[in-house]
Amino acid sequence: MSRVNRVCLVGGSGFVGRHMAERLAARGVRVIIPTRNRERAKTDLIVLPSVELVSADVNDPAQLSALVAGCDAVVNLVGILHESRSGDFRRAHLTLTEQCIAACKQHGVHRYLHMSALGAGPSAPSEYQRTKGEAEQRVVAAQASGLATTIFRPSVIFGDGDSFLTLFARMLALAPFVPLGSPGARFQPVWVEDVAHAFVAALDLPQTVGQCYDLVGPDVFTLRELVQLVGKVTGNERPVVGLPDGLSRLQARVFGMLPVKLITYDNYLSMTVDNVSSMPYPAVFERTPSALEPIARQYLGNATPRGRYQAFRYRAGR
Ligand SMILES: NC(=O)c1ccc[n+]([C@@H]2O[C@H](COP(=O)([O-])OP(=O)(O)OC[C@H]3O[C@@H](n4cnc5c(N)ncnc54)[C@H](OP(=O)(O)O)[C@@H]3O)[C@@H](O)[C@H]2O)c1
Question: Cβ neighbours of residue 27 under 8 Å, at least 6 residues apart?
Fold first, then answer.
């Protein structure tokens, strides 16, 4: 496999992309990161050597094509959890994937890495999972027509800058108790560095071409256990009141109508199936995935003042 010198990281301005960009930059790879909002994205990305943050809307095929020209690989990380308008999931997950594949073909880019999600499938319960599943089908078809593709399907991803556990940390700092919808939903959280490692390693590993990998951590947690763990590591332990199914649905529908979306009905539907894998973290990447608690202690410790104190105590062994 020829060396990858220049990568277009589509959707690279977000949580996962930042960690991936750091790894690529550390290897001297030139990284092009398009963003629709350079001001919001620039904080930590512009300090990375060899990373170029470009104002662009990748939904426009002409702009995407210009970014992909001259690259050795395209990594597609674009994904959304909530729709603002009907059809957003299809546009972000499916149409953009088709456009990335078309841009690769147009410019003779041979390598394409695709971010999907555990649970994705054309007949999955939520629109998020269905559109991710349809996008996977397009990637498999592109592989059959000569593009060297690899698909990654992580469970929920945790790490510095995540929104999932950090959101719980902020809620626990404010609320006297947590009324939790879908408390029994199961996840196998994977550390963002383990995800970034797999993507970057795949660029050098010919045996990963044509493969689809689940990316999971070593442990399975229910949603209730995750909230309790966040309470423990931030020093904000609160009673967690698990809602029965009917109230979980209602909560998701009501919260989904608020301007800031903590959860939507589509998220609720995603959680009706276990987000766990029957396969361990792939051996081909020669890495042992990290457990959640010690990592969460480090970065969530900084989310609240009390958490910072807890993290100091933990590090001091007290
Ligand atoms: N985080 C998780 O727990 C998790 C778990 C499983 C799978 N995934 C998948 O991993 C990928 C990355 O997740 P993340 O947490 O890093 O997400 P993120 O922080 O929200 O970043 C996603 C990036 O995609 C770009 N983007 C979003 N919607 C777009 C649109 N309609 N058109 C063009 N660009 C768009 C955004 O770029 P700009 O706004 O800067 O243009 C943003 O930087 C997603 O595909 C997600 O589905 C994430």
Answer: 200
